[in-house]
Amino acid sequence: MITAKNPFTINFGKVPSQYINREILVDEIIGELDSEEIQNQCFMLSGTRGSGKTVTMTSIEKIKAEDENWIIVRLNPTKDMTEGLVAKLYDTGEFISKFIDKNLNLSKFGIGISVSSIKPAADIESSLEKILYEIKRKNKRLLVTIDEVSNTQYMREFASCLQILIREDLPIFVIMAGLYENVREIKDTKELTFLYRAPHYYMEPLNRTLIADKYMKTLGITYDEAYEMAVITKGYPFAYQALGKYVWDEPEHKINQNVLIKLDEALSHYVYEKIWKELSPKDQWNMSFIVRKDNMTTAEFLELSKQKKNEFSQYRTRLRDKGLIDVSTHGLISYTLPRFDVFVKNQQE
Questions:
Q1: d(CA 149, CA 31)
Q2: Which of 40, 118, 267, 340 has its CA 20 to 30 A from that of 124?
């Protein structure tokens, strides 16, 4: 039975009521986090804007927050992350704040009570190490989540610190989420090669059958109608929410031109304009040919664009790594984002 409130949302990061859980991915990470024999302590999620990175990370946070043996901390990657982690730990767990007030003088960093009998700590990293030993002694584990990661000085410093903490066998686990190219740039940093061993999950398109089933049950429409909607979304999570939202608002819950206009506006405003501005002029030019067909052979593309194969190869790799094209089938190119052809044509006009 359909309720009066629209169950779909286009708010980024918030877990919507009609969220399609990436169950296999989430279960795999949760299994790693809970394992007695620790294999991995750092996990990376990457994908295009609107592909569900933040929502997936949030759902993992919520699961672990229900376990009293876990401490959850979200870090802001635009600030000193090591110092930020210690400050948040002080505010998060009562046993941690008591430990700091009794054993560490972190007044220099504006953390805790100044203990006159203890020399002020000069190094925040060594203080974090001591806190983690206390967390380990209490048989607890720490999960740190970082959204919108990029290759900044703060990120490199924190990752270097993390490498040492992991070698010390301390109970810190980190999930990083970011755009394809930003995550790749961090992994390519010379001093952070240990991140290449971290499990890296790409936000693949949602299963269209699952999308159709959700639409059918939520909107009270036929499976054929629901599957038609699923095809339009191309499995893109933001499009799944946006299309559902605008079809819900229609009296008969049907797709029409008004729905498609609203969908195109939402995709453009919230996602595609940002993606487009981040592309080089040559990347944009190449995409203008790729979106002319749902999929085309490499030979067709080269004929249309009047390019040589070796000339296009670097742009092909870049567009693939940005999650904008699918080249997994040998000799074929297709664009991945729903109604991106409409957006690109509007940009050209």
A1: 24
A2: 40
